[in-house]
Structures are given as C-alpha cells and as structure tokens.
C-alpha cells in the first residue's frame, strides 16, 4: 500500500488498482478565511500550497472518503479543511463515488456528489473488494463538539493490503481506543495539529492525547493535519521531538506534503 500525503488531512491511498482520496481540501493557498483570529495568528487558509505532485496523484482517484463536511446542513458552516468548494468541484466533475457518514449524505447529494455509501457509527459495509467501518469521531470535548458537529473515522480492509484506521477529526475517546484495540489496524492515521478555535477547548487531540494514541496503536501511525491551517499550532519538528522523548519515533511517520509512504502488509 502506498500513502500519498498531499496536505493537511488530504491524502490518497493507493491499493492495487484503487486510488482512494481522503478529505479533499484542494483550494489554493490563502483562498479560505482564518479559522481563528485571536488565539492564533489570523492567516488565511490553507497557509501552504498543494505540493507540485498533487494533481497527477488525484487524477487517478477512483473513490473518495469524506469524514465530515458540514454543520447542521448549512453550507456557510462547511468543514472546508476537509471538503472545500474546489474538492466538491473535482468530485462532481469526475463523478467520483463518495463514502461518508449518514448525517452528511443528503448534504453531499444536494451538492451533486455521487454518494455510494452512507454509514452510521460502527456500521460496516462492503466497498471495493473489501469492507469499510465507520468509527465515531468526537470533534472536541464538552460543549464545543456540539458547535463543531461530529464526524466519523473509517476503518478499511482490502484484500492483500494492510488494514488502515483513519481516525478523522477527533479527540481521544473510548471509541478511538475501541477501534485501536478491536481492529488492531496495521496503519492508524491521526490528526495531530492540536487545533483550537478562539473559544472553547481543543477540537483535536492535544499533544498528550496524541502521544496516548501513538502508544495505544498496535502498529504504524501516520500523523497529519500539520502545518497547513492557521488554527493548528503543533509543528512537525515539535511532534518529532516529543516522539524522541517518548521513545515512539520508530513507529510514527510524519510525512512532508507531497511525500509518498510505502507500507507493507504485516506477515505476523
């Protein structure tokens, strides 16, 4: 399996003939407003361009997974760091099949997308030649997750390929622990940017919970959602240093934008 990390939470899983795009934020640098104005420097998003190899990679896409896309069915409250207008246009123009959570399906269909799977929490469905399961993702603790609206993660198993758990935009929860313990994914992907807004607590895992995720994950981990948005303060270097202190660096990949990782299926 190859993982083509593009930017933020956007990446492509290459598994045999399948090219699976995850959470396409395809806007040009600075096309979107800041997500925080006071707690973090109010830079327009994304704060970096897509890497130069992005377009040839996404041109091969055969399926898209969207972990979350909107709040309360209101376009103005779209989670543009996971599905922006450029991403919608790409998916619509190519009629790419989309798998998403059940709560987002009608919204995506209204935007002209080809929703092939709409999953409820912990529901499993056949997809491609394998199976996909939706894992609850809680977008913050206490009241802030109601404002954000929760999403899902996805656990994906394809024949002859390493299993992969994409945890999505979530804090560390019992559902996350359950997914890591029960499924024992060979690859686990975690949003490691420690995002927060101008009000409320973290809407992603803070650094200490990211370390807990790394410790609990049974195999390889990929850290993404880094150095692309103005409300995500954790840097790759900061994360690397923390992993070195914790003795976890050998199991964690922190890909650069445009980097491709090759991860083989475990023989154990």
Structure overview:
The protein is α/β, with parallel strands linked by helices and 268 residues long. Helix content is 22%, strand content 26%. The protein contains seven helices and 14 strands. The radius of gyration is 17 Å and the shape is globular.
How are the strands ordered across the major sheet?
6-5-4-3-2-1-14
The dominant shape is globular
DSSP summary, beta strand count: 14
Helix content: 10-25%
Let me know the largest β-sheet.
7 strands, mixed
Spans with pLDDT under 50 lasting ≥5 residues?
Answer: 72-77
Mean pLDDT, as a whole number?
A: 90
Strand proportion: 25-35%
Structural class: alpha/beta
The string of secondary-structure elements, in order, is EEEHEHEHEEEHEEHEHEHEE
Terminal residue distance: 17 Å
Number of helices: 7
Rg to the nearest angstrom?
A: 17 Å
List the helices and strands and how they pair.
Elements: E1 2-7, E2 10-15, E3 18-22, H1 54-58, E4 63-66, H2 85-94, E5 97-101, H3 102-110, E6 114-119, E7 124-127, E8 130-137, H4 144-148, E9 151-157, E10 164-166, H5 174-183, E11 187-191, H6 207-216, E12 220-224, H7 236-246, E13 252-253, E14 260-262
Parallel strand pairs: 3-4, 4-5, 5-6, 10-11, 11-12, 12-13
Antiparallel strand pairs: 1-2, 1-14, 2-3, 7-8, 8-9, 9-10
